[in-house]
Each structure stands twice: as structure tokens, then as C-alpha cells.
Amino acid sequence: xxxxxxxxxxxxxxxxxxxxxxxxxxxxxxxxxxxxxxxxxxxxxxxxxxxxxxxxxxxxxxxxxxxxxxxxxxxxxxxxxxxxxxxxxxxxxxxxxxxxxxxxxxxxxxxxxxxxxxxxxxxxxxxxxxxxxxxxxxxxxxxxxxxxxxxxxxxxxxxxxxxxxxxxxxxxxxxxxxxxxxxxxxxxxxxxxxxxxxxxxxxxxxxxxxxxxxxxxxxxxxxxxxxxxxxxxxxxxxxxxxxxxxxxxxxxxxxxxxxxxxxxxxxxxxxxxxxxxxxxxxxxxxxxxxxxxxxxxxxxxxxxxxxxxxxxxxxxxxxxxxxxxxxxxxxxxxxxxxxxxxxxxxxxxxxxxxxxxxxxxxxxxxxxx
Length: 369
Description:
This protein is α+β, with helices and mostly antiparallel strands. The chain contains 8 helices and 18 strands. It has helices at 37-47, 107-114, 130-148, 181-185, 194-209, 237-246, 267-270, 340-362, and strands at residues 4-5, 10-15, 21-27, 64-68, 70-71, 74-75, 80-85, 159-167, 170-171, 216-223, 251-256, 274-275, 282-283, 291-292, 295-296, 301-307, 317-320, 326-329. Strand 2 and strand 3 (21-27) form a beta hairpin.
């Protein structure tokens, strides 16, 4: 019913924004994987609300509980279930929305599809659902590290780094070759360009004061990619990455490599010419973004994800009531004026989930001598 993702490494998320809690069940995780709970908590801390003055001030510790699938610090091969309990839900803050549909939100579409909707916090359409994804993504990252040193295919561990590249009309200047997670985490915007970050802070705070919101883009580089991840024809690597990232709340666009800029180039300028490498051919450019024919070619993955402005704003907007009457709404409550800073760990998690899934799938492909 649309609550599960993945093929071999599969996750199913559960819970609502203002219910008892939210979480995830991971199926397909190999046995004997060392599970670092602190690493899971670290990713959840990067995602949680209230972490800076730029985010919603909902006060949630988001402490993870591992319910099953781990014994003596290692996975058992059974489904791994994790739960984060909601402790600061204020359902009453949404009473004024009970009989109206918020513009550009999921209120109307959920009501039309299911005959009901979660007025409190949006239920499953809330970004709080992504807690399960981020927790599972942290496990996927640990699996990728373990697979990197496995057998004859050993290689450096896959490194995923995402950062805020644009907020509204402010664009950063960040080199994908050298940017580190430390650079990203040093700024509350998660934009490692200090000058652009300062401007982003001012723009986001002004939007909050104006009762408005801002959108932007997150860029991702994945280094130390192995060759061969991706399945023909419908499970191409970029297709699964696109589905993963476009399934995140507030996303509106996705690009790999040159993306839409490719339409202004010619074949001569866009083609990535091959040169001999130490282990396999390498390319002089990376317009393909590390994927050719739907399969990774060993070059860094280069991704870009666009997020719209937060739908719930404090300005007066025209809408309709649940009975079809024209009304004016000024939404109240605790909301992010810009989702970009907290979107970064969500993007990291979804990329890790896709790569973990395709890494396990690739293990089934044996090339006979």
C-alpha cells in the first residue's frame, strides 16, 4: 500500500506525526552485521526538530528504541524494528484546520483518496514519517561499510555527502570533490559556503517573520562508488534514486549529473571520454553523474534534489472548507520556514538505502570465468 521501499533491502515505515510514535521495520538485512546504535541516533539527531533557530521548535528528543532483530550488538537476520516515540505532540494546535484544506498540502488529496485525513500534523504526509527512513538509512550506511571490505571486491567505503546548495535565490559555491560532512555540519543551514550560509540564515529568518517560507536544492556526492550497481531495465540506479528522493516530503525535482542542463549541450561536449585507469576505465568529465545505462561506472554519483517552500505558512491564503465554501486561512502551529537544513540527513538516508539495496542485488551476479 505504498509504505514499503526497496527490493532486497526493504523497509516499511509506520506511525503518524501526532500518534504514539513512528518507526521502521527493515527486512533483508544480513545476519551478523555489527549494529552501532549511537550511529543511528546521530543521524536522527541531525534530522530532529528544534536543533536550531531555523527549524520548527517542536521539542522532540527522537531517542531510538531497537525492538527486534539485534542480539549482542549484531543483526540476527530477522526483521529489525526501530521505534521513536512522540513526546511533544500538540494535537489541539491544529483544531482550526479541522474544517479547511491547507493550500498545497496533502489535506484535500488524502481526504479524496481515503475519505479521511489526519488533521493533527498531517499524519503520514508529515516529514515526521521520515524518522523511520533516517534510522534505516543509518543501518544501510553500516551495511555499506561492511560490504566495502568483503572478499575480492574490497574497496574504500562508500561516502555520501549532501549539502544545501540553494535557498530561494541564494546559491552556494561548493566543490563536490572536496566537501566533507564536517564542512556541512559546521553551518546551521548545512550549506558549507559560509558567505552563502549567512545570507540563507537571513533569508529564512525574514521569511519566518513575514509568515512565509522558502524552498531550495540539496546536492549530493557519493564517492568510492563501485562499478556495476543498477539493474536493467526498470530498476536503473538513477531511476531508483529518483523514486527514493522524490518520495521525500516537499520534493519537486531530481537530477543526475548534468540533469536538465544536458539539453543545452551537444554530444561532443556532453560525452564523458574514457581513459585507462588503475583498476577500470575512468572518465575525463562526469556529465553522466556516475551512471551510464542505468549502472554505476565507478565515478562519483552527482545528484540534485529540489524542495518546494513549506506548504503551511502563517499568511492569509484563500482556500475552501471541507463543505466546499470559500474561506481565508491563516495557519498556526510550529513549522519549518524552510525544510532544506533538515532535509540533508533525509537525502543521505534515502541514497544509502538505494545503494545498500543494489549492493545486495549485485552480489547475486556472478561473472563466470
